[in-house]
Design brief:
Chain lengths: 107, 272
Amino acid sequence: MKTTFVAAFLFLAGATGALAAPASGAASAQASADLSGAVGQSVGNGAAIVGVSVAMPMMAVGGLGEAIATASFDQLKDAGRAGRPLPVTDKTVLRGPAPDQALKARQ
Amino acid sequence: MKRILLICFFLLTGLAAPAAAQMSSAAGTVGNIERVLPFAKKVERELAERGAVVAIVARMGRDPAQMPGDVGKYTHVGIWVYSEVTAADGSTVNTYAIYNLYQDADDQGRSTLVQDFPVEFFASVFELNAGIVIPTPELQAELLRVVTSPAYRALHVPEYSVVANPYEWRYQNCTNFIMALLVAAIYDTDDRRTISGHLRAHYEPRDIKLGGVTRALGSVFVDGFATSDHRGAPLRTSTYDSIVAFLTRYGLADAVLEVTESNVREEKIAGR
């Protein structure tokens, strides 16, 4: 009986940790909200921006259409093959607030 | 036995909250924003300097010491895509947008596809440590095609289980979703049955060694832990390590990296 209890304890303790682990995503939403607050000042002084739209490389260059998209990606792919670095911003980019939070903030 | 079940229930429900709290209070979390910001930028720059348009990046959401040894140290995996982002003032910058399957906060038995950015990706981690696999340019191109196609959402299963069977479609977790996208990209298909067939033929998920008591009670008491899709067989699910093993085995990885605050370590890939 005691063995069973110990085993159950260990299994469940281990399991709870393991099972909750990928719940890191659950924490992520809250973390993002907190983070937005924490770097709000950075947004104010221009060190961070809130992204309002995201375009993948193909769309950024070509607009619409798979042929253009592929060609655009090939250019980027070639850049990678040549070992040429891709430019990235020095700024911190953040997701905008969720719709419910955005509306709440306006009220 | 009834007493054991009762105690087990409290263990499960009682430990779940501290486990979640730990993720948001541990070192390297939002409480240490001055560490998260440069680390996120470091990972971003590492990918950009290597010319990676698409990469698979993992984070360490929990203390690895608390994880079963067969799970590995990473708890979440997302697809990073080099993108152009427009700000509210109309200006544009280049950064990585990240495509994630996240477990819902208010219903851990379900998941949502969420796009965020590097600093948000690492905001809630136990340790600032990133596992990175950069696919070959050819696979990057195919992955990009899938992520921008209707197949991306069509292959998402909102019913979440942390131990989801990667060969089935009843439940899904972030790593199984990545594997489904990879196979969809490689074989140019969005047919679930076809994807499952390729996975069974070529992909080995990791065994999750849990006892029968845990397995039985976990399904009852823990949201996001469902095992019915394994049909009584041993639990097996995808991990970052199993994804890396698949990509390196078939020569589909250009680089495998581990990035910490102080170091970048590149693993040697056999045959390269």
